[in-house]
């Protein structure tokens, strides 16, 4: 056989297997309670509606559903998505929408179309791991921007943009997850959003808005979408049906200026020709029958209770006065736990596994290699009982660590 | 807005919109008969089986179908695909199989994992346009290898491999479509296959076997799969459900050494995380219920009649003694027409459109910019009546061209 290692491309050498994936393999033990996934709850799938609609689609439109479709996506779905976007203050037509096979594909296509090796990208600290992976493949260099409970810190963003400009770097975009961020759970305030759009215009840089969780707001008022604030055409919005409908259909979409959409479509053509027509028509019909709003309400009700349960369990079990903190997110799937600086969640992972509880180490979301004292906890997938028991196991693990640290 | 053109990546500048796509836009006229597509016939879709199976899958396995799945593909489908491969003399396990969202994605992933900019790739003259596009994105340089009605000419392949070796080039793979090739319709003989595997071992180079049409053999004996001949692990096989089941489900697969499959999986993770579980379970159940063989027989019966109709129409309408030739393919979707050297099918395209018949210009399949006197004709999609009328229109177009040429 040929020597594979000497034949792999630079692109493939850039992207390693996900650290999460390797760690998750350890969590396949009986009785393990895992907060490590990012999966929607199976109770949240509208299975009966999908079954009814799938039958209808195959009865009425099999010749479209089972055939190749336009790379941009079926007009039926793009029009429905445009209506959906209007409800979010984003006024666009079908020509501004590209249907993708998941929002991960959206990120990959954005990376493919804009990133050249060594191009600096501005990202939140922490940010979505799948985004970092998609952009790493194209050779991006990440500039981490400090973030707090109101989103990316604009003074730090501006200072970094200014430095990049002064050093004549060709920065391509600012990557953001402004709603119930994965992993931090943070939602950007309207003020930060306004300022980000202003900076994108002043510094001539695209703003990528990756919002898979935006619809999953349990309480409070939704801030404006970046796309709705922007008047220049500098915002590219990535959304998905995975969290509000079903990930198993692999459907997402990109909203952007029509020239950008055209360029992304050419890229999509060479990576997979088109997205499943069957799945697109199922989603289009679900939207057309106006089933989404009620369904999202149902998901929100399920997840709100779970988020509350996790928040309560953390209050109940976590040791007090040791500098452990978390923010109760107003939506989404994740809660981010901060430990005292000295407590290393990467190191502690195996001890947690011993106690049969799993989390994702926070450091993988930090492009600067930091965040060892943080972890991401998913509350959408486990049951209420698992949340209570799992957090109590996690608290025990942390307490033992603290005792060990104090002994040193 | 930012200046897009100054922000697009090198990758995106490499890949232009498909020439076919632009030409196809011209064919959207009433009464147009198009031989330009590459679509399976809608009559060939097993719609009722899919409807029954989809209902069953959602009833029994919604929690898998609608959820995220393993990047490698569901074990249910990989095991069924392994059984399918065994029938073709390819003895592999699930660990040798990666489920992809179409064979176009398979080609993209192979390109991503192996090609660095300027790497030479050896391809047939002509070869599949989608392959050229996928590999172009990664900066491949194409070395065209002469081909005849028995496949790639091995003397030319060896001479080109030797030259590349002498000039210390890092050639990465030989890309082949050895069964009912798109566009030429040619199937490689067993002798050529044996020799290709031998050369791949001698020159330490991967052999990519892209065989979307292999199951669609109307007559004659199937030669051995390259994978079945190879003992070294140098062959990567790309297959698809698009031509034997339904393209609208976007399902293909790659067979290869387990290390290659693992590397391709890491790449797939960053481009779309996983393939639709719903669609995978539908295909798995279709295979499990043993419905594929009979279904393929049905498709073959439909396409054989259409191929015969096109061959007959060509005999009937094409001018004799002018050097027009074609080979009646033993399977697949395409028939390749060769015109006299002086007749330029690119130029003639608009005249054909005037006469309301469309084809794909052969030059787009030639990496060396030649083949202006060739065209690809699809016989799977048009009806028998359309085939007869369309070929008569095409013959008229050609006759007029010949008259014009003789007048000069």
Notes on the structure:
Two copies of one chain form a homodimer. Chain A is an alpha/beta fold. Chain A folds into two domains: 4-45 and 294-402, Aspartate Aminotransferase, domain 1 (Alpha-Beta Complex); 61-290, 3-Layer(aba) Sandwich (Aspartate Aminotransferase, domain 2), CATH 3.40.640.10. Helices cover 44% and strands 14% of the residues of chain A. Chain A has an eight-stranded mixed beta sheet, with helices on both faces. A four-stranded antiparallel beta sheet of chain A has the order 10-11-14-13. In chain A, helix 6 (129-137) links the parallel strand 3 and strand 4. In chain A, helix 5 (103-114) packs parallel to helix 6 (129-137), helix 5 packs across helix 10 and helix 12 (292-317) packs parallel to helix 14. The model of chain A has no long low-confidence stretch (mean pLDDT 96). Chains A and B meet through helix 1, helix 3, helix 5, helix 6 and helix 10 of A and helix 1, helix 3, helix 5, helix 6 and helix 10 of B.
Give the SSE layout.
The structure is a homodimer of 408-residue chains.
Chain A: H1 10-14, H2 19-25, E1 33-34, H3 47-65, H4 75-86, E2 97-100, H5 103-114, E3 120-125, H6 129-137, E4 141-148, E5 151-152, H7 154-166, E6 173-176, H8 190-202, E7 206-210, H9 226-229, E8 235-240, E9 252-255, H10 258-272, H11 277-288, H12 292-317, E10 325-326, E11 334-338, H13 345-354, E12 357-358, E13 360-361, E14 374-378, H14 384-407
Parallel strand pairs in A: 1-12, 3-4, 3-6, 6-7, 7-8
Antiparallel strand pairs in A: 2-9, 4-5, 8-9, 10-11, 11-14, 13-14
């Amino acid at each position: 056989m040929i020597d594979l290692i000497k034949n792999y491309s630079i692109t493939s050498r850039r992207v390693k297997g996900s650290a999460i994936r390797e760690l998750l393999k350890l969590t396949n033990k009986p009785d393990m309670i895992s907060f490590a996934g990012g999966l929607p709850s199976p109770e949240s799938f509208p299975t009966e509606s999908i079954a009814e609609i799938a039958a209808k689609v195959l009865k009425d439109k099999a010749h479209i559903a089972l055939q190749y479709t336009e790379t941009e996506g079926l007009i039926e779905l793009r029009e429905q998505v445009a209506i959906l976007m209007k409800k979010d203050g984003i006024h666009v037509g079908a020509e501004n929408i590209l249907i993708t096979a998941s929002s991960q594909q959206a990120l990959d296509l954005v990376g493919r179309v804009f990133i050249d090796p060594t191009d600096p990208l501005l990202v939140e600290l922490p940010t979505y791991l799948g985004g970092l992976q998609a952009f790493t493949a194209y050779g991006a260099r990440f500039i981490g921007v400090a973030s707090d409970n109101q989103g990316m810190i604009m003074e730090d963003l501006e200072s970094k943009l200014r430095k990049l400009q002064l050093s004549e770097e060709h920065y391509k975009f600012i990557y953001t997850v402004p709603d119930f961020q994965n992993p931090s759970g943070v939602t950007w305030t309207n003020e930060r959003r306004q300022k980000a759009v202003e900076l994108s215009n002043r510094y001539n840089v695209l703003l990528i808005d990756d919002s898979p969780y935006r619809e999953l707001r349990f309480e409070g008022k939704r801030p404006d979408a970046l796309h709705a604030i922007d008047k220049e055409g500098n915002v590219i919005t990535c959304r998905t049906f995975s969290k509000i409908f079903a990930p198993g259909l692999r459907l997402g979409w990109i909203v952007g200026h029509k020239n950008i959409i055209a360029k992304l479509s050419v890229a999509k053509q060479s990576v997979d020709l088109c997205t499943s027509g069957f799945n697109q028509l199922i989603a289009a019909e679900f939207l057309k029958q106006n089933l989404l709003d009620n369904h999202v309400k149902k998901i929100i009700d399920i997840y709100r209770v779970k988020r509350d349960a996790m928040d309560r369990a953390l209050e109940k079990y976590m040791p007090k006065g040791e500098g452990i903190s978390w923010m109760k997110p107003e939506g989404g799937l994740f809660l981010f736990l901060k430990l005292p600086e000295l407590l290393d969640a990467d190191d502690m992972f195996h001890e947690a596994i011993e106690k049969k509880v799993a989390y994702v180490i926070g450091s993988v979301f930090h492009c600067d290699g930091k965040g060892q004292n943080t972890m991401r906890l998913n509350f959408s997938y486990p049951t209420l009982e698992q949340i209570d028991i799992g957090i109590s196991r996690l608290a025990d693990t942390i307490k033992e660590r603290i005792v060990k640290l104090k002994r040193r």
